[in-house]
Amino acid sequence: xxxxxxFRHTLYLICSAGGGDLQRLLDDAVSLPECDVRNIxxxxxxxxAFLHTRTIAHLDIKPQNLVMMGDTPEAGVKLVDxxxxxxITPGTELTDIMGTPDYMGKLRK
Length: 109
Hints:
Blueprint: H1 22-28, H2 34-53, E1 56-57, E2 66-68, E3 77-79, E4 86-87
Antiparallel strand pairs: 1-4, 2-3
């Protein structure tokens, strides 16, 4: 077997997300209190930091891919849908345009 062989694995993790996705919360609320927004962002950033220390890039972060584990952000927010994610090895440059077009920067569309 070659040293540079690529192994792809699929892991399906199924858990209950009683609060739906962040998009539902945003659609239902007129506005969110600053403390809730801060809590959500802290959880998302901790999750991204965890992924990045393992050289994983999610590549499709959007409200529909953030699920609420309960009715409030304190119950937990999870990043889901790793279908576009990639392991980024040192020296690798991402040149493919990936993600959901409505959530991409104007220069990437």
